[in-house]
Design goal:
Strand content: over 45%
Keywords: Signal
Number of domains: 1
Number of helices: 2
Number of strands: 6
Protein name: Ig-like domain-containing protein
Largest sheet: 6 strands, antiparallel
Signal peptide: 1-20
Protein backbone atom coordinates (compact mmCIF):
# COMPACT_ATOMS: atom_id res chain seq x y z
CA UNK A 1 0.00 0.00 0.00
CA UNK A 2 2.88 2.36 0.83
CA UNK A 3 4.43 1.75 -2.60
CA UNK A 4 1.18 2.61 -4.39
CA UNK A 5 0.76 5.77 -2.34
CA UNK A 6 4.38 6.81 -2.96
CA UNK A 7 4.00 6.13 -6.69
CA UNK A 8 0.87 8.27 -6.87
CA UNK A 9 2.59 11.13 -5.07
CA UNK A 10 5.57 10.92 -7.44
CA UNK A 11 3.24 10.97 -10.46
CA UNK A 12 1.39 14.03 -9.12
CA UNK A 13 4.68 15.83 -8.44
CA UNK A 14 5.91 14.92 -11.91
CA UNK A 15 2.71 16.15 -13.59
CA UNK A 16 2.79 19.46 -11.72
CA UNK A 17 6.50 19.88 -12.48
CA UNK A 18 6.03 19.14 -16.18
CA UNK A 19 2.90 21.23 -16.69
CA UNK A 20 3.75 24.06 -19.04
CA UNK A 21 6.69 22.14 -20.54
CA UNK A 22 7.01 21.59 -24.27
CA UNK A 23 6.83 18.10 -25.76
CA UNK A 24 10.63 18.04 -26.21
CA UNK A 25 11.19 19.10 -22.59
CA UNK A 26 8.88 16.35 -21.35
CA UNK A 27 10.71 13.77 -23.52
CA UNK A 28 14.07 15.00 -22.19
CA UNK A 29 12.83 14.65 -18.59
CA UNK A 30 11.53 11.16 -19.37
CA UNK A 31 14.82 10.18 -21.03
CA UNK A 32 16.75 11.37 -17.94
CA UNK A 33 14.57 9.27 -15.64
CA UNK A 34 14.91 6.20 -17.88
CA UNK A 35 18.70 6.67 -18.11
CA UNK A 36 19.00 7.01 -14.33
CA UNK A 37 17.06 3.78 -13.87
CA UNK A 38 19.34 2.04 -16.40
CA UNK A 39 22.46 2.96 -14.46
CA UNK A 40 21.28 0.73 -11.62
CA UNK A 41 22.03 -2.35 -13.77
CA UNK A 42 25.74 -1.49 -13.98
CA UNK A 43 28.04 -3.25 -11.52
CA UNK A 44 28.90 -0.80 -8.74
CA UNK A 45 32.41 0.59 -8.57
CA UNK A 46 33.09 -1.11 -5.22
CA UNK A 47 32.01 -4.50 -6.60
CA UNK A 48 34.16 -4.36 -9.73
CA UNK A 49 37.27 -6.51 -9.87
CA UNK A 50 39.23 -3.80 -11.67
CA UNK A 51 39.52 -0.07 -12.13
CA UNK A 52 36.92 1.79 -14.18
CA UNK A 53 37.22 5.35 -15.44
CA UNK A 54 33.94 6.85 -16.59
CA UNK A 55 33.83 8.67 -19.93
CA UNK A 56 31.33 11.32 -21.03
CA UNK A 57 28.43 9.09 -19.92
CA UNK A 58 27.73 5.56 -18.62
CA UNK A 59 28.26 4.15 -22.11
CA UNK A 60 31.90 5.23 -22.40
CA UNK A 61 35.13 4.99 -20.45
CA UNK A 62 37.92 2.55 -19.73
CA UNK A 63 38.23 -0.58 -17.62
CA UNK A 64 41.25 -2.64 -16.59
CA UNK A 65 41.19 -5.71 -14.40
CA UNK A 66 43.29 -8.69 -13.33
CA UNK A 67 41.10 -11.65 -12.41
CA UNK A 68 42.00 -14.68 -10.34
CA UNK A 69 39.54 -17.60 -10.27
CA UNK A 70 36.66 -15.15 -10.75
CA UNK A 71 33.15 -16.46 -11.41
CA UNK A 72 30.51 -13.79 -11.96
CA UNK A 73 29.20 -11.26 -14.47
CA UNK A 74 30.18 -7.60 -14.46
CA UNK A 75 28.07 -5.08 -16.35
CA UNK A 76 30.66 -2.44 -17.19
CA UNK A 77 29.12 0.12 -19.52
CA UNK A 78 25.68 1.00 -20.84
CA UNK A 79 22.26 2.19 -19.91
CA UNK A 80 18.68 2.56 -21.08
CA UNK A 81 18.79 5.90 -22.85
CA UNK A 82 16.10 6.54 -25.43
CA UNK A 83 18.02 9.43 -26.94
CA UNK A 84 21.74 9.38 -26.13
CA UNK A 85 23.18 12.90 -26.38
CA UNK A 86 26.48 11.63 -27.82
CA UNK A 87 24.74 9.68 -30.58
CA UNK A 88 24.09 6.01 -31.18
CA UNK A 89 27.61 4.92 -32.20
CA UNK A 90 30.27 3.78 -29.73
CA UNK A 91 33.79 2.63 -30.54
CA UNK A 92 34.78 -0.48 -28.56
CA UNK A 93 38.36 -1.71 -28.18
CA UNK A 94 39.03 -4.65 -25.88
CA UNK A 95 42.03 -6.86 -25.17
CA UNK A 96 41.43 -10.11 -23.30
CA UNK A 97 44.06 -12.50 -21.95
CA UNK A 98 42.70 -15.87 -20.80
CA UNK A 99 45.14 -17.85 -18.63
CA UNK A 100 42.56 -20.30 -17.28
CA UNK A 101 38.82 -20.71 -17.00
CA UNK A 102 36.48 -18.90 -19.37
CA UNK A 103 35.63 -15.28 -20.02
CA UNK A 104 33.20 -13.80 -22.49
CA UNK A 105 32.99 -10.09 -23.32
CA UNK A 106 29.43 -9.41 -24.47
CA UNK A 107 26.99 -6.76 -25.66
CA UNK A 108 23.32 -7.17 -24.81
CA UNK A 109 20.57 -5.00 -26.22
CA UNK A 110 17.00 -5.06 -24.95
CA UNK A 111 15.48 -8.52 -24.86
CA UNK A 112 17.83 -9.80 -27.59
CA UNK A 113 20.33 -12.57 -26.95
CA UNK A 114 23.76 -11.37 -25.84
CA UNK A 115 26.28 -10.95 -28.66
CA UNK A 116 29.75 -12.33 -27.85
CA UNK A 117 32.43 -9.79 -28.76
CA UNK A 118 35.44 -11.75 -27.50
CA UNK A 119 35.96 -15.01 -25.60
CA UNK A 120 39.54 -16.06 -26.27
CA UNK A 121 42.89 -14.36 -25.84
CA UNK A 122 42.92 -11.58 -28.40
CA UNK A 123 41.67 -8.14 -29.34
CA UNK A 124 38.28 -6.84 -30.44
CA UNK A 125 37.82 -3.46 -32.09
CA UNK A 126 34.66 -2.21 -33.80
CA UNK A 127 31.99 0.47 -33.82
CA UNK A 128 28.61 -0.57 -32.46
CA UNK A 129 25.40 1.28 -33.29
CA UNK A 130 23.17 1.16 -30.23
CA UNK A 131 19.43 0.76 -30.76
CA UNK A 132 17.07 2.73 -28.48
CA UNK A 133 16.56 1.24 -25.05
CA UNK A 134 18.77 -0.93 -22.86
CA UNK A 135 22.32 -1.62 -24.03
CA UNK A 136 25.06 -3.08 -21.85
CA UNK A 137 28.62 -4.27 -22.37
CA UNK A 138 30.10 -6.60 -19.79
CA UNK A 139 32.15 -9.67 -19.05
CA UNK A 140 30.90 -13.08 -17.92
CA UNK A 141 33.49 -15.25 -16.16
CA UNK A 142 33.73 -18.80 -14.89
CA UNK A 143 36.82 -19.64 -12.79
CA UNK A 144 38.56 -17.00 -14.89
CA UNK A 145 42.17 -16.04 -14.36
CA UNK A 146 43.45 -13.42 -16.77
CA UNK A 147 43.28 -9.76 -17.75
CA UNK A 148 40.99 -7.39 -19.58
CA UNK A 149 41.55 -3.88 -20.93
CA UNK A 150 38.58 -2.10 -22.46
CA UNK A 151 38.14 1.37 -23.92
CA UNK A 152 34.85 2.70 -25.19
CA UNK A 153 34.48 6.11 -26.85
Amino acid sequence: MKKIFLSLILILIGVSTLSGCTKDEILNHYNNVVQSAGSIELTGKLSLQGKKEKGIDDYTGSYQADYENFSDTEYLFGGTSIKREAGKDISVTCTLEVLSGTAKVFWISGADEAVTLLETTGTYSDTITLPDGGNYIGIECEDFTGKIEMNIK
